[in-house]
Amino acid sequence: MDKTAVLLLQMGGPDSLDAVKPFLLRLFSDRDIIRLGPGFFQPLIAKFIARRRSEIVREHYRKIGGFSPLRRLTELQAAELEKRLGGGFRCFVAMRYWKPDTSEALNAIRYEGIDHVVALSLYPQYCRATSGSSFNELTRILTRSSAGFRVTYIKQFFSHPLYIAALVEKIEKALLAFPSRTNVSLIFSAHSTPCSLIDAGDPYLNQIKTTVAMVMESFRGVAYRLAFQSRAGPIRWLEPSTEEVITELARAGTRAMLVIPVSFVSDHVETLYEIDVICREIALKKGVNDFRRIESLNDSPLFIRCLEKLVREAR
User: Fold this and answer.
1) DSSP letter at 273?
2) What ranges in 112-188 are assigned the alpha helix state H?
3) Cα–Cα 20 to 30 A to 98, which of 68, 75, 184, 260?
4) Beta bridge partners of 256
5) What residue segments make up the domains of the chain, in order of their start?
6) What stretches in the chain show pLDDT beneath 50?
């Protein structure tokens, strides 16, 4: 039986504290995610930023165990997806800024003798700086390759009913932990992106808003806000920040908050450190009594079913 390879595309993260600096170098060298001066000068600027920020970022990873769990979780998602798809499929993982990278993943697929690849972005909403960068890297490597892969692309799933249902399930579960949901404010936290991308027509912001609106169909009458996290650099980024929204709500008297990481499907430094450590500290200092985050989708059966349906429909 001819098999199909499913290639799960994800950002990746350092697998040790020593990997933080080279990870940052790869990240800031990517002009799809951020443009730092002329193209020929970006590698030098990236080296400077990686050297300057590495110790700070290493401290973030120390506080979540010394490494990113993103590879382990993505490989778990791949394993669960392969089980659901059955014998005609093999699932592989490609990390944009760490290992296994796209080239290594394609080599593994070629070794298996598979020539049809379904490239599945694990970013629910399409953005040039995330999904776009992964697909551009895939295209560059395929162009250099003589393997002759036939590739099908799944670029987004921000409005897929099973993705929405998986988020709703996690929110419902989290709300059960509050004494009453009446006074809980929901904060949808998405990864920020430079405003210049949105101004140039990138669909990311509209897709985020669509995801939030579809989720809130199940929570009519519940207060909610959309916020953005993980800004870096002096350029204009999508606002308001998650920290600003927490502060604003606390000042208005909100004492119970539930954060929903809406653009992430797996736990990593943005959930485990930025939300669970930094945002929690801010909330508690501002007088919030009950601050929680929903469980990330990770290997949620509903989410894996979503990925399965996406692959079967694309094939």
Assistant:
1) I
2) 133-144, 161-175
3) 260
4) 184, 290
5) 161-293
6) none
